[in-house]
Amino acid sequence: MIAVDVGGTETKAALVAGTAREVRAVKQRRRATTRDAEAVVDEVVSLVEELRAGVDVEAVGLVVPGVVDEDNGIGVYSANLGWQDFPFVKQVEARTGLKTSFGHDVRAGGLAELRIGNARGLQDAVIMPIGTGIAAALVLDGRIYRGDGSVGEIGHVDVGHGDPCGCGQTGCVEARASSAAIARRYAERTGQPVSGAADVAKLVRAGDPDAVTVWQEAVDALARGILLVAALLGPEAVVLGGGLALAGPLLTDPLRDRLDGLITFQRRPELRLAALGDEAGCLGAALLAIDMLEER
Prior knowledge:
The chain is an alpha/beta fold. Helices cover about 40% and strands about 25% of the residues.
Protein backbone atom coordinates (compact mmCIF):
# COMPACT_ATOMS: atom_id res chain seq x y z
CA MET A 1 0.00 0.00 0.00
CA ILE A 2 0.95 3.62 -0.31
CA ALA A 3 -0.43 5.49 2.70
CA VAL A 4 -0.80 9.27 2.74
CA ASP A 5 -1.67 11.24 5.87
CA VAL A 6 -2.53 14.87 5.10
CA GLY A 7 -2.00 16.83 8.31
CA GLY A 8 -2.68 20.44 9.15
CA THR A 9 1.01 21.31 8.84
CA GLU A 10 2.76 18.34 7.23
CA THR A 11 1.82 15.58 4.79
CA LYS A 12 3.37 12.19 5.53
CA ALA A 13 3.47 9.33 3.05
CA ALA A 14 4.81 5.80 3.27
CA LEU A 15 5.15 2.62 1.29
CA VAL A 16 3.62 0.14 3.74
CA ALA A 17 3.63 -3.65 3.82
CA GLY A 18 1.65 -5.94 6.09
CA THR A 19 -1.73 -7.33 7.01
CA ALA A 20 -4.86 -6.10 8.74
CA ARG A 21 -3.21 -6.86 12.10
CA GLU A 22 0.40 -5.81 11.51
CA VAL A 23 1.82 -3.15 9.20
CA ARG A 24 5.22 -1.53 8.81
CA ALA A 25 6.53 1.41 6.82
CA VAL A 26 9.16 0.39 4.27
CA LYS A 27 9.90 3.82 2.83
CA GLN A 28 8.73 7.26 4.03
CA ARG A 29 8.39 10.81 2.73
CA ARG A 30 7.32 14.14 4.31
CA ARG A 31 6.32 17.44 2.78
CA ALA A 32 4.68 20.65 3.97
CA THR A 33 0.90 20.60 3.50
CA THR A 34 -0.44 23.07 0.96
CA ARG A 35 -3.55 25.10 1.76
CA ASP A 36 -5.66 24.15 -1.25
CA ALA A 37 -7.49 20.91 -2.07
CA GLU A 38 -6.34 20.77 -5.69
CA ALA A 39 -2.74 21.35 -4.60
CA VAL A 40 -3.10 18.63 -1.96
CA VAL A 41 -4.16 16.18 -4.68
CA ASP A 42 -1.14 17.22 -6.77
CA GLU A 43 1.08 16.48 -3.77
CA VAL A 44 -0.61 13.14 -3.06
CA VAL A 45 -0.20 12.04 -6.69
CA SER A 46 3.44 13.13 -6.68
CA LEU A 47 4.14 11.15 -3.50
CA VAL A 48 2.34 8.07 -4.85
CA GLU A 49 4.33 8.14 -8.08
CA GLU A 50 7.60 8.56 -6.20
CA LEU A 51 6.92 5.72 -3.75
CA ARG A 52 5.47 3.25 -6.27
CA ALA A 53 8.51 3.34 -8.57
CA GLY A 54 9.66 -0.24 -9.11
CA VAL A 55 7.12 -1.65 -6.64
CA ASP A 56 3.88 -3.60 -7.20
CA VAL A 57 1.42 -1.43 -5.27
CA GLU A 58 -2.10 -2.71 -4.59
CA ALA A 59 -3.87 0.41 -3.34
CA VAL A 60 -3.63 3.90 -1.85
CA GLY A 61 -4.83 4.77 1.62
CA LEU A 62 -5.57 8.49 1.98
CA VAL A 63 -6.61 10.26 5.18
CA VAL A 64 -7.34 13.95 5.68
CA PRO A 65 -8.42 16.25 8.54
CA GLY A 66 -11.79 17.90 9.10
CA VAL A 67 -15.21 16.47 8.36
CA VAL A 68 -15.14 13.63 5.82
CA ASP A 69 -17.63 11.55 3.87
CA GLU A 70 -15.72 8.26 3.88
CA ASP A 71 -18.23 6.32 1.79
CA ASN A 72 -18.17 8.81 -1.07
CA GLY A 73 -14.52 9.85 -0.76
CA ILE A 74 -15.29 13.52 -0.11
CA GLY A 75 -13.53 16.02 2.15
CA VAL A 76 -16.62 17.80 3.45
CA TYR A 77 -14.98 20.59 5.44
CA SER A 78 -11.60 21.55 6.89
CA ALA A 79 -11.38 24.57 9.16
CA ASN A 80 -7.58 24.65 9.06
CA LEU A 81 -7.03 23.87 5.36
CA GLY A 82 -10.03 25.60 3.87
CA TRP A 83 -11.67 23.05 1.57
CA GLN A 84 -15.32 22.15 1.24
CA ASP A 85 -17.03 19.18 -0.49
CA PHE A 86 -13.95 18.13 -2.43
CA PRO A 87 -13.91 14.71 -4.21
CA PHE A 88 -10.50 13.44 -3.12
CA VAL A 89 -10.94 9.77 -4.03
CA LYS A 90 -12.31 10.47 -7.51
CA GLN A 91 -9.37 12.75 -8.27
CA VAL A 92 -6.65 10.49 -6.83
CA GLU A 93 -8.00 7.33 -8.49
CA ALA A 94 -8.31 9.07 -11.85
CA ARG A 95 -4.73 10.31 -11.73
CA THR A 96 -2.98 7.26 -10.22
CA GLY A 97 -5.10 4.40 -11.55
CA LEU A 98 -5.03 2.87 -8.06
CA LYS A 99 -8.00 1.93 -5.91
CA THR A 100 -8.06 4.43 -3.03
CA SER A 101 -9.52 4.13 0.44
CA PHE A 102 -10.42 7.32 2.27
CA GLY A 103 -10.79 8.32 5.87
CA HIS A 104 -10.30 10.83 8.64
CA ASP A 105 -6.71 11.33 9.78
CA VAL A 106 -7.47 11.07 13.49
CA ARG A 107 -9.73 8.04 13.20
CA ALA A 108 -7.11 6.34 11.04
CA GLY A 109 -4.46 7.00 13.67
CA GLY A 110 -6.89 5.71 16.28
CA LEU A 111 -7.39 2.53 14.27
CA ALA A 112 -3.63 1.97 14.23
CA GLU A 113 -3.34 2.55 17.99
CA LEU A 114 -6.28 0.19 18.58
CA ARG A 115 -4.85 -2.65 16.49
CA ILE A 116 -1.09 -2.33 17.03
CA GLY A 117 -0.50 0.47 19.55
CA ASN A 118 -1.31 1.56 23.10
CA ALA A 119 -5.09 1.15 22.80
CA ARG A 120 -4.90 -2.60 22.19
CA GLY A 121 -7.36 -4.50 24.35
CA LEU A 122 -9.51 -1.47 25.18
CA GLN A 123 -13.24 -1.69 24.56
CA ASP A 124 -14.14 1.96 25.23
CA ALA A 125 -11.52 4.66 24.77
CA VAL A 126 -10.77 8.07 23.34
CA ILE A 127 -7.62 8.39 21.22
CA MET A 128 -6.68 12.05 21.00
CA PRO A 129 -3.73 13.33 18.97
CA ILE A 130 -2.80 16.93 19.73
CA GLY A 131 -1.17 18.73 16.84
CA THR A 132 -2.13 21.67 14.63
CA GLY A 133 -5.68 20.88 15.70
CA ILE A 134 -7.35 18.53 18.17
CA ALA A 135 -9.83 15.78 17.38
CA ALA A 136 -10.51 12.34 18.79
CA ALA A 137 -11.07 8.80 17.60
CA LEU A 138 -13.82 7.17 19.64
CA VAL A 139 -13.50 3.47 20.43
CA LEU A 140 -16.90 2.04 21.35
CA ASP A 141 -17.31 -1.67 22.05
CA GLY A 142 -13.86 -2.34 20.67
CA ARG A 143 -14.41 -0.62 17.30
CA ILE A 144 -13.65 2.82 15.90
CA TYR A 145 -16.91 4.74 15.68
CA ARG A 146 -17.15 6.93 12.60
CA GLY A 147 -20.83 7.95 12.59
CA ASP A 148 -21.55 10.22 9.64
CA GLY A 149 -17.94 11.38 9.42
CA SER A 150 -18.27 14.39 11.71
CA VAL A 151 -17.82 12.74 15.12
CA GLY A 152 -14.93 13.24 17.52
CA GLU A 153 -14.37 16.98 17.03
CA ILE A 154 -13.50 17.54 20.68
CA GLY A 155 -11.20 20.39 19.68
CA HIS A 156 -14.26 22.46 18.88
CA VAL A 157 -16.06 22.04 22.19
CA ASP A 158 -16.58 25.33 24.06
CA VAL A 159 -14.85 25.02 27.43
CA GLY A 160 -15.54 28.59 28.47
CA HIS A 161 -12.32 30.57 28.02
CA GLY A 162 -13.77 32.94 25.41
CA ASP A 163 -10.81 33.04 22.98
CA PRO A 164 -11.71 32.96 19.27
CA CYS A 165 -11.08 29.81 17.21
CA GLY A 166 -10.39 29.40 13.51
CA CYS A 167 -13.68 27.51 13.17
CA GLY A 168 -15.64 30.68 13.96
CA GLN A 169 -16.63 29.76 17.52
CA THR A 170 -15.12 30.96 20.78
CA GLY A 171 -13.91 28.97 23.78
CA CYS A 172 -12.77 25.89 21.83
CA VAL A 173 -10.38 23.38 23.38
CA GLU A 174 -8.21 23.67 20.27
CA ALA A 175 -7.85 27.45 20.59
CA ARG A 176 -5.79 26.96 23.77
CA ALA A 177 -4.56 23.37 23.91
CA SER A 178 -3.39 22.52 20.38
CA SER A 179 0.34 22.59 19.71
CA ALA A 180 -0.19 25.47 17.30
CA ALA A 181 -2.22 27.44 19.85
CA ILE A 182 0.39 27.00 22.59
CA ALA A 183 3.15 28.36 20.35
CA ARG A 184 0.96 31.19 19.07
CA ARG A 185 -0.27 32.23 22.51
CA TYR A 186 3.23 32.30 23.97
CA ALA A 187 4.43 34.50 21.09
CA GLU A 188 1.44 36.83 21.49
CA ARG A 189 1.99 37.07 25.24
CA THR A 190 5.73 37.76 25.11
CA GLY A 191 6.45 39.11 21.65
CA GLN A 192 8.99 36.30 21.27
CA PRO A 193 8.20 33.91 18.39
CA VAL A 194 8.81 30.19 18.93
CA SER A 195 8.93 27.40 16.37
CA GLY A 196 6.38 25.21 18.14
CA ALA A 197 4.95 23.85 21.38
CA ALA A 198 8.18 21.91 22.01
CA ASP A 199 9.98 25.23 22.48
CA VAL A 200 7.34 26.33 24.98
CA ALA A 201 7.74 23.03 26.82
CA LYS A 202 11.48 23.69 27.16
CA LEU A 203 10.71 27.14 28.56
CA VAL A 204 8.24 25.61 31.03
CA ARG A 205 10.98 23.28 32.27
CA ALA A 206 13.27 26.30 32.62
CA GLY A 207 10.67 28.08 34.75
CA ASP A 208 9.68 30.83 32.30
CA PRO A 209 6.54 32.31 33.95
CA ASP A 210 4.80 33.19 30.67
CA ALA A 211 5.39 29.69 29.32
CA VAL A 212 4.09 28.20 32.56
CA THR A 213 0.89 30.27 32.32
CA VAL A 214 0.26 29.32 28.68
CA TRP A 215 0.93 25.65 29.50
CA GLN A 216 -1.40 25.67 32.51
CA GLU A 217 -4.17 27.25 30.47
CA ALA A 218 -3.69 24.60 27.77
CA VAL A 219 -3.84 21.82 30.36
CA ASP A 220 -7.03 23.29 31.83
CA ALA A 221 -8.75 23.46 28.43
CA LEU A 222 -7.68 19.91 27.64
CA ALA A 223 -8.86 18.61 31.01
CA ARG A 224 -12.27 20.22 30.52
CA GLY A 225 -12.56 18.60 27.10
CA ILE A 226 -11.66 15.21 28.59
CA LEU A 227 -14.19 15.78 31.36
CA LEU A 228 -16.89 16.15 28.72
CA VAL A 229 -16.04 12.85 27.03
CA ALA A 230 -15.78 11.19 30.46
CA ALA A 231 -19.32 12.34 31.24
CA LEU A 232 -20.72 11.30 27.86
CA LEU A 233 -18.82 8.10 27.08
CA GLY A 234 -17.20 6.88 30.29
CA PRO A 235 -14.03 5.64 28.52
CA GLU A 236 -11.56 3.29 30.18
CA ALA A 237 -8.68 5.41 28.91
CA VAL A 238 -7.73 8.53 26.99
CA VAL A 239 -4.73 7.88 24.75
CA LEU A 240 -2.85 11.11 24.03
CA GLY A 241 -0.83 11.39 20.84
CA GLY A 242 0.51 13.94 18.42
CA GLY A 243 3.39 16.32 18.94
CA LEU A 244 2.26 17.59 22.34
CA ALA A 245 2.30 14.07 23.81
CA LEU A 246 6.08 14.05 23.28
CA ALA A 247 6.21 16.31 26.36
CA GLY A 248 5.41 13.16 28.39
CA PRO A 249 5.03 13.78 32.15
CA LEU A 250 5.20 17.54 31.62
CA LEU A 251 1.76 17.12 30.03
CA THR A 252 0.31 14.06 31.75
CA ASP A 253 1.20 14.92 35.37
CA PRO A 254 -0.57 18.30 35.52
CA LEU A 255 -3.37 16.93 33.34
CA ARG A 256 -4.02 14.12 35.85
CA ASP A 257 -4.01 16.65 38.68
CA ARG A 258 -6.45 18.94 36.87
CA LEU A 259 -8.76 16.04 36.03
CA ASP A 260 -8.72 14.97 39.68
CA GLY A 261 -9.84 18.49 40.59
CA LEU A 262 -12.67 18.51 38.04
CA ILE A 263 -14.09 14.99 38.15
CA THR A 264 -16.86 14.31 40.65
CA PHE A 265 -19.05 11.34 39.69
CA GLN A 266 -17.66 10.62 36.20
CA ARG A 267 -15.58 7.56 35.45
CA ARG A 268 -11.95 8.57 35.81
CA PRO A 269 -10.20 7.60 32.56
CA GLU A 270 -6.66 6.30 32.61
CA LEU A 271 -4.28 8.60 30.73
CA ARG A 272 -1.96 6.83 28.30
CA LEU A 273 0.57 8.08 25.78
CA ALA A 274 0.19 6.84 22.21
CA ALA A 275 2.76 4.28 21.03
CA LEU A 276 3.01 5.05 17.32
CA GLY A 277 3.98 8.71 17.34
CA ASP A 278 3.42 10.63 14.14
CA GLU A 279 3.43 7.40 12.10
CA ALA A 280 -0.05 6.52 13.40
CA GLY A 281 -1.97 8.30 10.63
CA CYS A 282 0.02 6.66 7.84
CA LEU A 283 -0.20 3.21 9.39
CA GLY A 284 -3.94 3.69 9.92
CA ALA A 285 -4.37 4.82 6.29
CA ALA A 286 -2.64 1.61 5.20
CA LEU A 287 -4.95 -0.43 7.43
CA LEU A 288 -7.97 1.24 5.81
CA ALA A 289 -6.60 0.31 2.38
CA ILE A 290 -6.06 -3.30 3.47
CA ASP A 291 -9.57 -3.47 4.92
CA MET A 292 -10.97 -2.10 1.64
CA LEU A 293 -9.18 -4.77 -0.39
CA GLU A 294 -10.23 -7.56 1.94
CA GLU A 295 -13.88 -6.48 1.73
CA ARG A 296 -13.94 -6.65 -2.09
